[in-house]
Design goal:
4 helices; three-stranded mixed β-sheet; 154 residues; flat; alpha+beta
Length: 154
């Protein structure tokens, strides 16, 4: 099991790190075990569990989590699917089941454009990041919709 929290959640760095490692392991194991016909996928479920109650008690429950306040029974069919022969052509994927919503998590990838030089200075890197890659900067956090510059108020 992993979580969309792996994409970033404020105040839960240990949890986020573990779930991110689970996603990375899913991708790596899928590649390593593919020659042996072994499938490796992860499930990123969203349902109301004791973790929601603990988050509410700690004051870290976000309103956006209310959409997932359904019984784990709603998510169970995704687990059954992944464990069955119905998913025999699926490997290296993170299936997201957020309450009644089904989706996939994108794999992290290097952007297509790459700049190459024999040597780089920090100033040249700053200039290329700001001019060449500025449109490629990704939103941070699973609820983010656009990139926010560091130091700008949320």
């Amino acid at each position: 099991l992993t979580s969309r929290s792996a994409l970033g959640v404020t105040g839960h760095s240990t949890y986020v790190s573990i779930k991110g490692a689970t996603m990375s392991a899913t991708f790596a194991w899928a590649l390593e075990l593919l020659p042996y016909g072994v499938r490796v996928n992860a499930l990123s479920p969203g349902a109301h569990t004791r973790a929601h109650e603990m988050a509410a008690a700690a004051g870290t429950y976000r309103p956006s989590q209310a959409k997932n306040a359904v019984s784990p029974d709603v998510v169970a069919p995704a687990a059954v699917y992944l464990l069955s022969e119905m998913s025999n052509r699926l490997t290296g994927q993170v299936v997201v089941m957020l309450g009644p919503r089904l989706g996939l998590t994108r794999h992290p990838r290097m952007v297509e454009r790459v700049e190459e030089r024999e040597e780089w200075t920090p100033q040249e890197i700053a200039q290329v990041i700001e001019t060449v890659f500025s449109s490629e900067l990704q939103p941070v956090g699973h609820e983010a919709t656009e990139y926010q510059l560091a130091g700008e108020p949320a």
